[in-house]
């Protein structure tokens, strides 16, 4: 997808992506699946602490996404994720996708669950 990670820290991430020709649909606007995957990638970075010991991972247990404005090939998008609330092994995170000029393209709310890391067994 050509993502550039600008910030990846505990409970906060910022990622950039430039929309390419193959990312648009038949109407010439960015495919919703591409916007979803972009926001979901930011969500993964936001809810997984890069300084953790690796014994657990945090995964999506559900998401809601609202597409608010179209974008086209050549536009640069920014996804910023932040923790809303965490209780035990569950969390809620908001990811906002904007254009470079700050126009909101999509809002994504992710629900997470922290589980044992299967690779650490």
UniProtKB/TrEMBL annotation:
Species this protein is from: Micrococcus lylae
Domain Thioesterase intervals: 27-105
Pfam families hit by this protein: 4HBT
NCBIfam families assigned to the protein according to its UniProt record, in alphabetical order: PaaD, unchar_dom_1
Gene3D superfamilies attached to this UniProt entry: Hotdog Thioesterase (3.10.129.10)
Swiss-Prot/TrEMBL keywords: Hydrolase
Signal peptide segment: none
InterPro entries: Acyl-CoA_thioesterase_PaaI, HotDog_dom_sf, PaaD, PAAI_dom, Thioestr_dom
Stated name of the protein: Hydroxyphenylacetyl-CoA thioesterase PaaI
Coiled coil spans: none
